[in-house]
Amino acid sequence: MDYMQELIELLGDERVTTNQTVLEHHSHDESYHTPRLPDVVVFPQTVEEVSQIMKLAYARHIAVTPFGLGTSLEGHAIPYEGGISMDFSQMNQVLEVRPHDFLVRVQPGVTRTQLNKELKKHGLFFSVDPGADATLGGMAATNASGTTSVRYGVMRDQVRDLEVVLADGRIIHTGSMTAKSSSGYHLTGLFVGSEGTLGVFTELTLRVYGIPEATTAARACFPSVQDAVDTVVDILSAGIQVARIELIDERSIRQVNLYKETSYPESPMLFIEFHGSEQSLAHDIEFAQNIAAEHGCQEFLFETDSKARAQLWDVRHNMAYAFLHKSPGKKMMVTDVCLPFSELAGAVVDARQAIDQSGLDGAILGHVGDGNYHVILMIDLDDSDEVARAEQLNAHLVEYALSRGGTCTGEHGVGVGKAKYQRIEHGEALDVMQSLKNVLDPTGILNPGKIFGA
To answer: Domain 94-210 adopts which CATH fold?
Structure first.
């Protein structure tokens, strides 16, 4: 690597490394996709350093893959062409909180939990909760969402402005601090979800919210997945302002009982959270409870105390760990599709049938309040037949979603895992995306292989 000395001159030898352990840490994310070592890992601290690194990479045609915490699920952070893995862990400052504007400026390495700890001092919170304590730069790169998107929207809805370093080292801003603008192209929306293929984020201006006066969580059990999903659709149709509404099927509950040594009813469950005033919540909870009863709800429990709410959500938040802990030697494959509400119930029922027919061990859960659901599969990557069946099942779920007006990914992003479905989903619009990529990254150095494939 003849450019190694240039990187050391720029950053110092402590922030440029080829240490094998560090390389391996940056060779994978939390997905099942095949790891690949980068050639070098760098740790920039300023936008100027990022710009200089990109200028060097642009001149030498060196691949650059941004890295946050490696929590992505479709291989986004895997550097399949080697080159530079750019780690943002040292760009982790909350730069400015503007409570009267409901805005915050952060560096890309700030995590969701870190931000909310700082915002709490001002009576504010950041709404997007993907489950993992991901970095905000990575969340913007994949247009992350999660449990609260049914009420507050996804990552793209929260980003007002991005500071972006382009492939050739130019530094641009994509938006402003205003609530709206009719000036020029909506570049912020273009870069959010671009997965590091159009530019590298070095600063984000984000929308934040006031902490609600009251919060109540509820857990409702149903005789079937169909009943649970129908309840979700009716609750949303009634205009009840739920902040979260999550589905977990009976297989998932059984796994949590094994892992936590609990005795939750092994039936499909909805986990619901309401935000608002004391008076409004009382009405919303009663209304939701009546709707659930119409669909055969067998148990409806709710809690207002923060510790009790945390225990109520314990099942949902421990799902992945429950499967990992009880499946030694296996890797978790998590699918992710999204459909129109009218198609959701049929999709979830079809997914359960497809899992059973595949002979694999799998569970269904997800953010059904916005049409998004996941299937968790535990697979042995050394068993080629098992891997093939898992991939066939994943393909079936995607094809079902696309055939009914859905998308191959509601929040995990494309990465390498969903690249093969992009032409089917987008048609000639994929060519437009490729054209934009070619303009902004003419030498193809920005996270190569992602979205468009190899």
So the answer is: 3.30.465
